[in-house]
Prior knowledge:
- By secondary structure, the chain is mainly alpha-helical.
- It has ten helices and three strands.
- Strands 2-1-3 form a three-stranded mixed beta sheet.
Amino acid sequence: xxxxxxxxxxxxxxxxxxxxxxxxxxxxxxxxxxxxxxxxxxxxxxxxxxxxxxxxxxxxxxxxxxxxxxxxxxxxxxxxxxxxxxxxxxxxxxxxxxxxxxxxxxxxxxxxxxxxxxxxxxxxxxxxxxxxxxxxxxxxxxxxxxxxxxxxxxxxxxxxxxxxxxxxxxxxxxxxxxxxxxxxxxxxxxxxxxxxxxxxxxxxxxxxxxxxxxxxxxxxxxxxxxxxxxxxxxxxxxxxxxxxxxxxxxxxxxxxxxxxxxxxxxxxxxxxxxxxxxxxxxxxxxxxxxxxxxxxxxxxxxxxxxxxxxxx
Length: 312
């Protein structure tokens, strides 16, 4: 048996014209993702109206989305352009580590954001004393530290697997499931480690989110004013949409894969949460948030005034 030194990533095997269409689509989405998330980070850091815990966590989520899509999208474009591509084992493990870090980060940040909404609606009088700037920074730092640590453990165990047979990864990036399929030994141990890490890692945040939103909904329904109920629901709806999209796709691929799920359907689900979700997140938060739209309008007006002054 010879040790594998590089993998061949299959990607999407289709006609040339379909691949060209997919390249154009992913390239536009990638550019839109970078621009949209950078815009949110800029607005949150420069606008005084957005110096609140919720927008701080949204900016952290945007940073995560930029890293995630920058780790996956260029690789997809390279694979599609060449109708498949090779990648060294070290590069593959690096990509897996960055991917795991960003996915775990998004999972934790969405959980922290649900806690923020819970405190804001269920304990509004204590919100400013609980969600202080120091507390928010501490929560974000804990998320990032846990991300790096847990992703390192997963990648370390994956790197210990023996790859000696087929080196073809039937996917568009180095993901856990396709790597386990081509490993020669150590698969059972890795599957056990993955189960021990993944189930609490996903189900615990989901439990916290469900409990938070159950209390939020109960509290909102007690409001006497219809306007107050609508305002409270509007502040949570954007986050809830992002949570549903993220966790449904993640659970479908890693925890509860449907019987008879084909490789193509698995690839499409992976494409959804690695490329499309980072693109959709800033759109959801910006289009459904009056404060972000107001800050954006202020920047546009300032740019118009500045350009007018230069023109004169």
